[in-house]
Specification:
By secondary structure, the protein is an alpha+beta fold. 24% of the residues lie in helices and 25% in strands.
Length: 311
């Protein structure tokens, strides 16, 4: 048997009943029902309920351990009674009766809880970011980000775009903000600049004869935070095409964006029709901005006020 696990904590199902398995994970939540100790064991993939009887030699150890301690447990997969099935968990039809346990890491008192979604001051969350990222919502967001980037990459490659990695330490190429500077070790008094965008590099790629470029590009800009990006750095889908028109760019990017939104929409509706194209003059006249949020349908309305005094 594997030293740490034969299955993940999100893998066990009714077909595993009767098998002896080994799981490793974090103690997510404990419930002491007097004669039984129920523990939710969590890893990256999900949660499995494990059960210990008082006569189990590891009962007192597990009863003493704080949540977020890391353990490896071995035991038999058992089907839950019909009235104890947890439909909210993919593993909710089974549980594991613990026969053996190894404590991998014992947790101290936590500065913030992982179970539940309580609001905590940002300074505490950032100081203990490794705990903050264990919380369900944030953990899911990080995994979602990875899946979205993989989806974008797949869709761009399917359209014959080639992915490049451009340099990070480079000369200054001013754009809309100030540069972040990195002192040069070999040339005292001189500095590298972190790129605000890979603009010059991707144009060099086009000049060099590569036809379609894209990159999930890190961009560094010394500017205040905005509603749609973090201060200092962010990532963007960066692309460039040779021998193309504006229509070619629209035709390449629209299916990528629409496909990503449709893939991760969940229960939200993503319209199938093409993206609306609003000329600049029309956008300024109707919305007062060249990047209107059409979801709100807020438009300028011209009113003509008349009174007899105007005669």
């Amino acid at each position: 048997m594997h030293t740490y696990r034969t299955h993940t904590c999100g893998e066990l199902r009714r077909e595993h009943v009767g098998k002896t398995v080994r799981l490793s994970g974090w103690l997510h939540r404990k419930r002491d029902h007097g004669g039984l100790l129920f523990v939710d064991l969590r890893d990256n993939y999900g949660i499995t309920q494990i059960v210990l009887l008082p006569e189990n030699p590891h009962f007192k150890t597990l009863e003493r351990l704080r949540v977020e301690s890391v353990v490896s447990v071995t035991g038999e997969v058992v089907a839950r009674d019909a009235d104890t099935i947890n439909t909210g968990l993919p593993t909710g039809e089974v549980e594991m009766h613990v026969a053996d346990m190894d404590v991998q890491s014992e947790a101290a008192e936590l500065p913030l809880p992982v179970f539940g979604e309580p609001e905590y001051p940002e300074d505490i969350r950032l100081t203990h970011r490794y705990l903050d990222l264990r919380r369900e919502t944030l953990h899911a967001n990080i995994l979602l980000r990875s899946k979205i980037i993989s989806s974008i990459r797949r869709r761009m490659i399917e359209q014959d775009f080639t992915e490049f990695q451009t340099p990070i330490l480079t000369a200054s190429s001013p754009e809309g903000a100030r540069d972040f500077l990195v002192p040069s070790r070999l040339h005292p008094g001189q500095f590298y600049a972190l790129p605000q965008a890979p603009q010059q590099f991707k144009q060099l790629i086009m000049v060099s004869g590569f036809d379609k470029y894209f990159q999930i590009a890190p961009c560094f800009r010394d500017e205040d935070s905005r509603a749609d990006r973090s201060p200092g750095e962010f990532y963007q889908l960066d692309m460039e095409m040779s021998f193309c028109t504006q229509e070619d760019v629209f035709a390449a990017i629209e299916p990528v964006l629409h496909g990503v939104f449709a893939e991760f929409a969940g229960d939200r509706v993503v319209p199938d029709e093409p993206f609306a194209r609003i000329p600049f003059a029309e956008a300024m006249l109707k919305y007062g901005t060249d990047k209107p949020d059409c979801a709100f349908r807020l438009r300028f309305v011209m009113c003509l006020i008349w009174s007899p005094a105007m005669m």
